[in-house]
Design brief:
The structure holds two protein chains of two kinds.
Chain A: E1 6-7, E2 11-19, E3 23-30, E4 35-42, H1 50-64, E5 74-80, E6 83-89, E7 93-95, H2 96-100, H3 107-126, E8 139-142, E9 147-149, E10 163-164, H4 178-181, H5 188-204, H6 214-223, H7 229-232, H8 238-247, H9 259-268, H10 283-291, H11 302-332, E11 346-348, H12 357-366, E12 370-376, E13 386-390, E14 396-398, E15 402-408, E16 414-415, H13 424-433, E17 438-444, E18 454-457, E19 464-465, E20 471-477, E21 483-484, H14 493-503, E22 506-512, E23 522-526, E24 532-533, E25 538-544, E26 552-560, E27 576-583, E28 586-594, E29 599-607, E30 612-619, E31 622-630, H15 631-637
Parallel strand pairs in A: 12-15, 17-20, 22-25
Antiparallel strand pairs in A: 1-2, 2-3, 3-4, 4-6, 5-6, 7-8, 8-9, 11-14, 13-15, 16-19, 18-20, 21-24, 23-25, 26-29, 27-28, 27-30, 30-31
Chain B: E1 2-8, E2 18-24, E3 28-37, H1 42-57, H2 65-90, E4 96-97, E5 99-105, E6 108-114, E7 118-123, E8 126-129, H3 136-142, H4 148-153, E9 159-160, E10 173-178, E11 182-188, H5 190-193, H6 198-205, H7 211-224, E12 231-237
The chains are: A alpha+beta, B alpha+beta.
């Protein structure tokens, strides 16, 4: 793709904005809708890998069902001349990776960014789409501060082909979960781990685990505990550290239960209410044991042990904090700092639940809060009214903190869930759960979707409907019309063509030389016999155009008559025969000798396909006979 | 001594991106298998470069252990720089190849490999894998993090951690064996080992048949089990077949 190239007669390529192992990203102009778009084009190296393409398309299609302000919208997925592409919303900004340049961000800023990403991932999870490749490189920060997540599900579309890690396949190794490292199925909990890893990097300036190779990093995800963020950046409050460390728990069930819970944990971690939080969960033991092994009397029971260890915590913490403050004062000298440990003016959060969202927002902003709101449907609370708030009322927080409001969108228009590729039974259950009272089922043949699974749904995923009043129809696969391709070898081209026409296959005929298969017969085919195909599939048939024409060397017997001695002459006259040839070896004399009777000479000629050879016979320096031999004649003579 | 090799496209791929070189006699010889990757002609080109580099260098193959080891390393580095040059000229992001080779000279046997092409030997009636795959899953397995079953079902099992043509420098694993008691040595690409379990490979290698037939059976076994990738096998029988 170059500047000015047009894709699908519509998208004019403007410039290359990024390249990765699997795809290149271009800025382009959509000449129909008159807007800039970003186009991700699969690298041509992959465009012949059918399985890869299929998954790439399916995942990209899934992503089109997502509609959220923090998700880069996918407008179109297509293919033109084996160029596979995804057309996406154009974001004028930079990736989060570039944005933070390896330095820690201010804690508030980091939390604000991740909270936007949480909203996006939460939305995707509600549509049963797992991102699986959450990393700062997949997040775009716009100038106005909006963060957008991209590349949903693309990670799944990995090919079976052998790949090296340098091909960015393991590029996300710094953010992937222990279960992903082990090759287990990645679910919502994996995305939570990755979110924790990104948050870790934003607040500390380091990824949780560093290593020389992808394998080394993967191993650390499986075995090691990450350094506590506060060790790297003392400004990280204990509550936030707890939130991060829980997300980074090795066992999925030890992590926050949902992205929403993780977000809540993260956002409230900055509240005054949690300012004195201790080290959370099972890490208490680990951490304390490492820092100061407690010797216990041998008869101590497990329970007592926990209690005893837990009491050590505050002491440890105080000590650590004290030491850090000192270092910081030394480092910063007299400079003013804005660290969390410095006392800030505080305010009490008012109760705005059940209030009109606009009023609530005004009231909060007046008190100096930053307000963020999320929308949720509710049967009991009217549209535009606050359902809940975080932090809750009466809590004392720093001035300028963020208050999150959940605002009702009124009585339940639900977003239709995506049930494609689910089994008929599961799809029906999901839809009934979503509130649909009537689910109709239709059947259809399909090669791509497994028999019994849903091919498509009559109301597309993401559409908002009042489910109770709607009938939704799902189309379930009956399996495919695929059949086994016959062995065409040795058929005549006409027979092969008849077979392809009859079965509706899209045949292409290629000519090849063959020494074994006769002219106009099938030498081989692709795909091979026995492979499952269905109508319209491409089949290439290789037809023999006979034996390959090679340079031939043949010998031509040339008879030369001896002129009888004239009467009266004693001595026979000298008769010198000279034979010259002109062929692939050039012009040369091959025979020169005297004869005294009729003689036959074997004259060799080497002729290239389509060329000719010449034999010129001289008797006593005069042309006796000249002839031209064609390639075909030479071949016949061979 | 018998030598035999076979390489095929398999049943799924359109092209054969493997190459195989097998030359030599009782005194000395060389077997090389390379499994190229990358689209268009890139995979074929990469493995063809490995073939050509070894084929050209064979006449100067030394016979002393130390020299033989560094000779293998030199050829791999040479192939590496040629492939890098090629991918730079063609502006390709994804090019690379594996390589597994065996050189023998009198009693000496030297094995070299990069990636997941393998060398096996039949020793005292038992099949032994002589190379450790440079793959993501195998490394985690060696570190005790993945079980055999997890390795087989891992979605990233085809990700290799070393290859020729992907980095400025390649790390080659070279092993020197002095007078090993091998009956048969097998060099192969993952198109064989992904499809055919070790037990079956062992069984086929021990059949009382000419080596050429055994090699054909190995390949057809892989094809019958799916033939999902190119299949390449090179075998050397060092000992006379035991006639029953």
């Amino acid at each position: 793709m170059r500047y000015g190239d047009r894709l699908n007669d519509r998208y004019r390529i403007e410039r290359l904005v990024g390249n990765g192992g699997m795809a290149n990203v271009y800025q382009a102009y959509d000449e129909i809708l008159n807007r800039h778009v970003a186009i991700k084009i699969l690298r041509t190296e992959f465009s012949h890998d059918e399985q890869f393409i299929r998954r790439f398309e399916r995942e990209a299609h899934a992503a089109t069902s997502l509609n959220h302000p923090n998700i880069v919208a996918v407008y179109d997925v297509g293919e033109e001349d084996s160029i596979y592409y995804i057309v996406m919303e154009f974001i004028d900004g930079m990736t989060l990776k570039t944005y933070c340049e390896g330095r820690p961000l201010a804690i508030n800023k980091a939390v604000e960014i991740i909270s936007q990403i949480c909203d996006a991932i939460d939305h995707a999870h509600a549509h049963r789409i797992i991102h699986r490749d959450i990393k700062p490189q997949n997040m775009l920060v716009r100038e106005d501060g909006t963060v957008k997540v991209t590349d949903f599900g693309i990670a799944v579309a990995m090919s079976n082909a052998t790949l090296t890690h340098t091909m960015s396949v393991l590029g996300s190794v710094h953010y992937f979960s222990p279960e992903q490292a082990k090759g287990k199925f990645a679910d919502e909990k994996s995305d939570i781990y990755s979110l924790g890893a990104v948050l870790y990097e934003l607040v500390t300036g380091h990824v949780p685990f560093e290593g020389d190779s992808p394998v080394a990093v993967a191993l650390k995800h499986l075995q090691d505990t990450a350094r506590r963020p506060s060790v790297l950046n003392p400004a990280v409050p204990q509550a936030l550290e707890n939130c991060i460390m829980q997300a980074l728990a090795k066992a999925p069930h030890d992590r926050q239960q949902s992205v929403a819970e993780f977000r809540e944990d993260m956002v409230t971690a900055l509240s005054a209410e949690r300012a004195d939080e201790g080290i959370r969960g099972e890490n208490v033991m680990e951490q304390t044991m490492v820092l100061s092994p407690v010797s216990l009397p041998p008869e101590t029971s497990r329970d007592e042990e926990t209690v005893k260890v837990a009491t050590v915590v505050p002491k440890q913490k105080k000590k650590k904090r004290w030491w850090m403050v000192l270092v910081f004062l030394l480092l910063l000298g007299g400079a003013a700092t804005t660290f969390a440990m410095w006392p800030d003016p505080t305010v009490v959060v008012p109760d705005v639940a059940k209030e009109d969202a606009d009023d609530a927002e005004k009231q909060l902003e007046k008190l100096g809060f930053v307000v963020e709101s999320t929308e949720r449907s509710s049967d009991t609370i009217d549209e535009g009214v606050v359902i809940s708030q975080a932090p809750r009322a009466e809590v004392t927080v720093k001035k300028g903190s963020t208050v999150n409001l959940v605002v009702s969108t009124g009585s339940d228009p639900v977003e239709v869930p995506d049930v494609t590729d689910e089994t008929e039974k599961k799809a029906t259950t999901i839809l009934k759960d979503a509130g649909f009272s009537k689910v109709d089922v239709e059947k259809e043949e399909s090669e791509e979707i497994k028999r019994g699974n849903v091919i498509r749904q009559s109301i597309s995923a993401g559409t908002e409907v009042i489910a109770k009043e709607q009938t939704i129809t799902i189309t379930v696969s009956e399996g495919s019309s695929a059949f086994e391709l016959k062995d065409l070898t040795n058929m005549s081209s006409a027979e092969a063509k008849a077979y392809l026409d009859e079965t509706g296959l899209d045949g292409t005929f290629e000519q090849e030389f063959s020494s074994e298969i006769g002219l106009d017969q099938v030498i081989r085919q692709f795909p091979q016999a026995g492979v499952k195909v269905e109508p319209n599939d491409a089949v290439t048939v290789f037809i023999s155009k006979g034996e390959e024409e090679k340079t031939v060397t043949a010998t031509f017997p040339e008879k030369v008559a001896y002129d009888a001695v004239s009467e009266g002459e004693e001595e026979p006259p000298q008769q010198v025969i000279r034979i010259e040839t002109e062929d692939a070896k050039g012009k040369r004399t091959v025979i020169e000798e005297s004869i005294d009777r009729d003689e036959t000479f074997d004259v060799p000629l080497t002729i290239d396909p389509g060329e000719e050879g010449k034999i010129t016979i001289y008797k006593d320096d005069e042309v006796y006979r000249a002839k031209t031999i064609t390639y075909e004649q030479a071949k016949a003579k061979q | 001594m018998e030598l035999a090799y076979l390489t095929t496209t398999g049943k799924v791929r359109l092209k054969n991106e493997d190459t195989v070189l097998l030359v030599g006699d009782e005194k000395q010889g060389l077997a090389v298998v390379a499994d190229g990757m990358g689209g268009h002609a890139a995979g074929e080109k990469a493995s063809a470069i490995v073939y050509q580099v070894f084929a050209d260098a064979y006449v100067d193959m030394p016979s002393r252990p130390g020299e033989l080891s560094s000779w293998i390393e030199q050829q791999v580095q040479e192939a590496n720089s040629q492939i890098l040059q090629y991918s730079k000229t063609e502006n390709l992001a994804v090019v690379g190849t594996t390589m597994a080779c065996v050189c023998w000279s009198d009693e000496l046997l030297v094995i070299g490999h990069v990636g997941d092409s393998r060398v096996y030997a039949i020793e005292e009636g038992q099949l032994r894998q002589l190379t450790d795959d440079h793959s993501y899953v195998n490394m985690l397995k060696q570190l005790g993090e993945l079980s055999e079953e997890e390795v087989e079902n891992h979605p990233r099992r085809n990700v290799i951690t070393r290859s020729i043509g992907s980095n400025e420098v390649v790390d080659v694993d070279v092993q020197v064996r002095d007078a090993p008691d091998y009956e048969i040595v097998l060099v192969c690409s993952d198109g064989l080992t992904d499809e055919v379990p070790d037990e079956v490979i062992q069984q086929l290698l021990q059949e009382d048949a000419p080596l050429e037939q055994i090699v054909e059976r190995l390949v057809s076994e892989a094809n019958e089990r799916g033939g999902a990738d190119n299949i390449t096998v090179a075998a050397i029988r060092f000992k006379e077949r035991k006639r029953v």
